[in-house]
Sequence to fold (155 residues):
Amino acid sequence: MSYELNHGMDEAVAQAPDPAMRTSWALRIYIRKAQRDRHWGWAMINIGVSGQQVFGHHTFRNATETLQDGIDSGLFRLDSLQVALDLVTGAGLQAIRTVCHEQASSSHAEDVAQAVLLGLGLHRSRVLRLVNSPLPKVTLGSNLRGEDPMSEVGP
Fold:
C-alpha cells in the first residue's frame, strides 16, 4: 500500500542530483502532500507507527541509501546511519502528524527540511538554497479516496 501511495513522489526524489537535494525534496514533498491531502497524511502516520519501516519498505530503503551516500561522501557530518535515519524519518513523520492536526504554518515543510539538513551537518547557506529551490513536478496516481486532487506536488 505504501508503494502505491508514494511511488510518484519517490520517483521524483530519485532524480535529485545529490543526497542533500534528495533529502530536501523528500521532506518537502511528503510534508506538502500531507498539507494538501490529510487522508494521505493519516495513512502515512498509520504506516509509520504500525510498521518497522517508516513510510513503507520502498521509501525507507531509498532514505537509507540516500543518507548512507551522504555520510560516505562526507556531505552529511554524522557517523551513524541510524541517527541520520531517526532524524530524517522521525522529523518527517512528526511534521506530517503536525500538519494532519492542523497545527502547521504554510512554511512548515521548508522549516522542517531546514532544521533536518542543518542537523545533518550542512552549512546554513547551502541549506537555505536547498529549501528555497523549486521542487520537481510529481505525478500521483491515486489517493485513498480513489481520486486525484493533487496531480502534482510543488510550489
